[in-house]
Amino acid sequence: MPAADPALLVGAETADDAGVYRIGERLALVETTDIITPLVDDPYTFGRIAAANAISDVYAMGGKPVTAMNLVFFPACDLPGEVLSLILAGGQAAISEAGACLVGGHTVEDAELKYGLAVTGLIDPRRIVRNSTARPGDLLILTKPLGTGIVSTAIKADMAPDGVADAATGWMTTLNRTAAELMVECGASAATDVTGFGLIGHACEMAAGAGVTVRLDLAKVPVMPGVDALIRDGLVPAGCYRNRDHYSRLSCCSGLSADLLLPLFDPQTSGGLLVALSPADAGQFLARAADTGCFAVCVGEVLPRRESVVEVV
Predict the structure, then answer these.
(1) Cα-based torsion angle of the residue sequence 108, 106, 58, 202 in order, rounded to the nearest 10 degrees
(2) Can you tell me the distance from the alpha carbon of 285 to that of 280, in angstroms, rounded to the nearest whole number?
(3) What pLDDT is recorded for position 252?
(4) Longest dimension (CA), the chain
(5) Residue 129 to residues 138, 190, 204: CA-CA distances in angstroms?
(6) Which residues pair with 28 in a beta bridge?
(7) How far is the C-alpha of 278 from the C-alpha of 73, rounded, in Å?
(8) What are the two backbone dihedrals, phi and then psi, of residue 12, each rounded to the nearest 5 degrees?
(9) Does the domain formed by 8-127 have CATH 1.25.60.10?
């Protein structure tokens, strides 16, 4: 049920990346939180990944992160305090890189280690980028390659080649700051960040909210090096199969290899932005991305609503 408060500009109705609450004529708060379990062995790197993942929701709305609060679940009887210190240091590094301020947090003793942030951002209410406002004719740009869920599964099994693990870690610790700034400058019509539901899952949310169909070009979707080999070795997270089982009912992927499709269902951590822009604005985005060193690939287009919410060709 939609909230009665007229100041709530974006709530939970369209499964958007964050809530937006107006506090002035030209100022609103972007509110989000996210917590994850470790994906890598190094505590500092885990902290950076978890923080970048949480901050990404603010970027996906076109906002600027301003404050963050640590949320920690820590098995104090099983791990030394130095591990917690390193996790928080990694989180602080990502928060500082985002230009935000750590204002506090809360720690709970728990059997399983988990870390994340509650993040507040600021945005002009006239420039909110929602996930539900894509238009037929828009092109779709993805700003990070896929595969972090599969690589993380291999890391946990100690079966990820060093180069593959390092590349995935590099992407997961990369903020979506530049991509978000570019999408606002270029007038994006819609955006979402690609996280736990995979590319197809988040594309389904984008299409359903806007009443359109998203068409993805499989050959253009970027996948991290080494992911195909890991799939052949069976190193696929359970979440990937859950996403496939659920979202395949809403998408049309007939005639395509099941293994080639798996990265599209792979649950991402700190994934890239999926941005919808008019063809002219998409061209500007790609040109500006090339100038700034921001990864960006056109992976599909938005069509008027057809039988399936998402088509993969």
Answers:
(1) 10
(2) 9
(3) 86
(4) 57
(5) 14, 5, 17
(6) 22, 123
(7) 43
(8) -95, 0
(9) no
**Tokens standing for residue 208:** 């359903």
CATH superfamily placement of domain 139-312: PurM-like C-terminal domain (3.90.650.10)
Give the number of other CB atoms < 10 A from CB of residue 163.
10
Number of H helices, E strands in the chain: 10, 13
Residue written as tokens 């039988």?
307
φ and ψ at residue 215, rounded to 5 degrees: -110, 125
Domain with CATH 3.90.650.10 in the chain: 139-312
Residue 136 has pLDDT above 90, yes or no: yes
Cα 276 to Cα 212: distance, rounded to the nearest angstrom: 12
CATH 3.30.1330.10 domain locations along the chain: 8-127
pLDDT tens track for 192-216 = 999 999 999 999 999 999 999 999 9
Distance CA 206, CA 223 (A): 21
